[in-house]
Amino acid sequence: MPAFAPSSYAQTNVAKAPMPEKPLVGHVNMQLDCFLANSNVDDLRAIVRTLLATGPAGTTAALTKIARKRIPSTIDKRVKPANTWFTVRKDGLYTSTPALEDTLKAARTLMGVGLGFDSLPILTEIVEVLNTIEFDLEDETMEEDLSRLDSDIAQACQSSREQIASGQIDDRVAARENLEAMKEALEKCRLVHETAEGDFPLEKAEMAVEGKWRI
């Protein structure tokens, strides 16, 4: 942030210094930056949602474009280490931890701005870890998190298909590899965790990866 605000923002008397219709410089003015730095997340979310709903045409596209550039460079900090996603219960079976939900939120952030293929490696690694552990499907915490994972993979696939349709894929080879890795992880997961009754906790995900992908 610059040491001094532009002259049109430096005055405290709004009548003497009306806010310009267009920004004078390519950064946030000091007063608004102070607000952004000190607001809570809920307020910022509400404000952004209102801006997107009521702002001029192109606001959503502009925000999405900026997010697509920003999020990939910071997402690794939000993904928790794989060895923290699950913990062993007293009976030797595994159950999920809050770190898993934090990691799922990171994946949702990517797919939410149209980067579905970028979210797949995160989700695939979770499935791969599931393939190495034993858990109880009647464990309420585990059941809820597996349901979220199932829905998130399905949503990531939908986001990926939209990414294809919009021509937003930079590396088609990597996209294919990400998709194939997810398919393989889900196939193994069914072999490992399908119940005797044929129940499988990631059925929606399995259906979502099937079909033709024109990458």
Describe the structure.
This protein is mostly helical. The protein has nine helices and two strands; from the N terminus they run H-H-H-H-E-E-H-H-H-H-H. It has helices spanning 7-10, 30-38, 41-54, 59-74, 98-112, 116-130, 140-165, 172-193, 203-209, and strands at 86-88, 94-96. A two-stranded antiparallel ribbon has the order 1-2. Helix 7 runs parallel beside helix 9.
How are the SSEs placed, and which strands pair?
Elements: H1 7-10, H2 30-38, H3 41-54, H4 59-74, E1 86-88, E2 94-96, H5 98-112, H6 116-130, H7 140-165, H8 172-193, H9 203-209
Antiparallel strand pairs: 1-2
Mean pLDDT: 87
Percent in helix: 55-70%
Low-confidence region ranges = 1-21
- The DSSP helix count reads 9
Q: Can you tell me the overall shape? A: globular
Number of strands: 2
Strand content: under 5%
Instruction: Output the radius of gyration.
Output: 22 Å
- Give a short account of the largest sheet: 2 strands, antiparallel
Sketch the topology as an H/E string, one letter per element.
HHHHEEHHHHH
Structural class: mainly alpha
Strand order of the largest sheet: 1-2
Amino- and carboxy-terminal Cα gap: 42 Å
